[in-house]
């Protein structure tokens, strides 16, 4: 299927890896997006961990139509609204925020709240969400935890982040309850700050190949 015919949720799966991007300077947003795109990854989550996040999201949304840009580390409704105003196409939170989830659902904006317990998953399900972030995956039981959670919550799909990398991505991606994985290893802050664009492209290629077992 052509990416233009895919929903946001389908595009996240198609990307396999949804990079978690931390930018110190908004001007690094476009070269980072292009470097990852050259490596076969056409989605990115620009995190609100740094002050330039809104400007960085806007730069990618306006200049890189081939890349699906979302906002990550969205902690409250104010950041969420700002991200959407700047052109973010999806919202990711490390935890479950009722105000963020309710607003996104009302406004038909794809949202992935972070849920690691049955109770949190039930809050997401109450809003009709069946795709959630699972963070930090390596701390909250990894694949085994998600496997067990997917038994009562039939149809739930996870995007695990935290400790996912090229050496374990295949295990994650092969599990039927995994939609895509997230992570920062393909676009480390140090590489972005140093302008190591070719390295970022290479890490993205390697991540996708590792996911396929190549
Ligand atoms: C996140 O917010 O999802 C994590 O910081 C990503 O985890 P990683 O840095 O281990 O890839």
Give an overview of the whole structure:
By secondary structure, the protein is of the alpha/beta class. The protein contains ten helices and eight strands. Helices cover 43% and strands 14% of the residues. Helix 2 (29-38) packs across helix 10. The longest helix is centred in the last third of the chain and has 16 residues, at 197-212. The protein starts with 7 loop residues before the first helix and ends with a helix. The structure holds 3-phosphoglyceric acid (3PG).
Top keywords for this entry?
214 residues, alpha/beta, four-stranded parallel sheet, two-stranded parallel sheet, 10 helices, 43% helix, globular, binds 3-phosphoglyceric acid
* Average pLDDT, all residues: 97
- Helix/strand class: alpha/beta
* Proportion in helices: 40-55%
Number of helices: 10
Which strands sit side by side, in order, in the main sheet?
A: 3-2-1-8
Main β-sheet, in a few words? 4 strands, parallel
Which band does the percent of strand residues land in?
Answer: 5-15%
Low-confidence stretches: none
- The beta-strand count equals 8
